[in-house]
Amino acid sequence: MAIKLPAHLKRYIQQKLDSGEYPTEDAVPRRAVAVMRYVERTLPSVQEDLRRELQLGLDDVERSRVAAWDLHEMRDRIRAS
């Protein structure tokens, strides 16, 4: 399979080769595809985790389990921890 890349991606691959991070030109797109596959497998799980956490927050709001907070006080508490 031959892949045509724009000049900026060719330069990027050359930089990776020059740095010694990858041994061959073929290794760079192989790694890119492996990362892409990992993201595709992981992303649905991350989205579901986010939905679950958001629902927990919404449930707390509905049950009045929330407190008012001040932006500056919260910033100071975060910085102090």
If you had to describe this structure to a student in words, what would you say it looks like?
By secondary structure, the chain is mostly helical. Helices cover 73% and strands 0% of the residues. The chain is built from 3 helices and no strands. The chain has helices spanning 7-19, 27-62, 71-80. It is elongated and about 60 Å long. The model has no long low-confidence stretch (mean pLDDT 91).
Q: Report the strand count.
A: 0
Weakly predicted, low-confidence segments: none
The secondary-structure class comes to mainly alpha
Task: Tell me the helix content.
Answer: over 70%
Helix segment tally: 3
> What oligomerization state is this entry in?
single chain
The biggest beta sheet reads:
none
Overall outline: elongated
Order of helices and strands: HHH
Average pLDDT, all residues: 91
In whole angstroms, the N-to-C terminal distance is: 53 Å
Strand content: under 5%
What's the gyration radius in Å? Answer: 23 Å
Instruction: Please tell me the total number of domains.
Output: 1
